[in-house]
Specification:
Tumour Suppressor Smad4; 15-stranded mixed β-sheet; 2 domains; 8 helices; alpha+beta; about 35% strand
């Protein structure tokens, strides 16, 4: 493959104690040693990575690299996918965040030094992406997600996690946020449309997955594949708090799917409506609230994986 000049988008505050800023000089040196031609730019706040990625793809860059966590990866992917040049723009990832959920599914090394070598390789994978439509500030909005999204309990955990420090990685803050959310949470009665099949369910949560992992290493959708042209839909039914705490450890091995109140389904489109306020998260970021529609967009993002 001919050498391509890359644009690298670096989130300096990603990682434990904002460690990406400290790691970047070494990452920069490693990429140069591996023969990559590039320039780079730091992000300056939420949403900036999407703006930079969209501008770079529009300016003719055909290889964009995200350096940061799952949120940075999501933003760069959104910037590429929203560009007219999405079909001819590839995305590389050097994860320096705390979650690393998407890269587990994609087979990208967690170690940033190994990822620097990986990202300069020639292997490319065309993966599916999800699109979610939702309500924010009283208006309808939409966004791409590449790993997973959800409504109900997991979104409220994401909301609670906004104030939890990340100095202990991602798994411990997730568990702390879960325990913070659990006492006051009430299961939701939802109207669910899965590929035209309509029914009502009382659920703790509903998660729509493109990748297999979630929440810093939980194997939430063990059969999910990034290129199978389907979304994996997990619903956890009307479980009580004690029952949830009992089944929760099984999520890390993916054995929770055998629980009688857990359902796994494949779908192209999912709509969730609820008479009560129901929050939405996508790729770990709180976006808005319902009603929510999830759709698969097959073979849409070219990733070095």
């Amino acid at each position: 493959m001919a050498k391509i000049h890359a644009k690298i988008i670096v989130n300096p505050v990603a990682g434990v104690h904002k460690s990406t800023f400290r790691k970047w000089p070494h990452i920069k040196s490693l990429l140069t040693e591996h023969g990559l031609s590039f320039d780079y730019q730091y992000t300056e706040g939420a949403g900036h990575a999407s703006e930079l990625a969209s501008a770079a793809a529009g300016d003719g860059y055909r290889f964009l690299i995200a350096v940061g966590g799952d949120g940075t990866i999501n933003e760069v992917a959104n910037g590429i996918l929203g560009s007219p040049n999405a079909a001819t723009t590839a995305m590389g990832i050097i994860s320096t965040g705390t979650g690393n959920d998407f890269i587990r599914s994609a087979g990208i090394p967690c170690n940033y030094a190994m990822a620097c070598k990986h990202v300069t390789g020639e292997r490319r994978s065309l993966i599916d992406v999800g699109i979610v439509e939702y309500t924010k500030d009283g208006k309808r909005a939409s966004r791409y997600f590449i790993n997973g999204a959800g409504v109900g309990f997991d979104a409220e955990v994401a909301e609670a996690g906004r104030g939890v420090p990340r100095f202990m990685g991602n798994t411990v803050p997730f568990v702390l946020s879960l325990l913070k959310t659990l006492p006051g949470y009430r299961n939701k009665d939802i109207r669910l449309n899965i590929d035209g099949r309509v029914e009502t369910r009382k659920v703790l949560t509903l998660v729509v997955s493109n990748g297999a992992y979630f929440g810093g290493g939980m194997r939430i959708a063990p059969e999910a594949e990034l290129s199978d042209r389907h979304l994996d839909v997990l619903t956890i039914g009307d479980v009580g708090k004690v029952e949830l705490l009992q089944v929760f450890p099984r999520v890390y091995k993916g054995t929770h799917i055998t629980h009688p109140k857990v359902r796994m389904e494949k779908a192209h489109s999912v709509t969730v409506e609820c008479d009560r306020r129901i929050l939405l998260q996508a790729d770990g970021e709180l976006l808005g609230e319902g009603p929510v529609t999830f759709r698969i967009q097959p073979a849409s993002l070219n990733v070095v994986a």
